[in-house]
Amino acid sequence: MNAWWSASVCINRTLGGQQSEPLCSRVYRQPPSPWRSAFMALMDCIFSETAHCETIHSRWRDRRGA
């Protein structure tokens, strides 16, 4: 786990309980909304990666063996 991943997990735990899921993955799983779209677009820009939240969700899902 790198520093970004660890920070994301800590933020998610602060906002939503004891789940170890990264925040980007949690947002990706939410129903479509303007806030979700804005967050996902912002993460794409910050990380210079297309579909960043989807990628993080896939990595998290693979790590936990789901």
TrEMBL record:
This is Uncharacterized protein. It comes from Paracoccus versutus. The lineage of its organism: Bacteria, Pseudomonadati, Pseudomonadota, Alphaproteobacteria, Rhodobacterales.
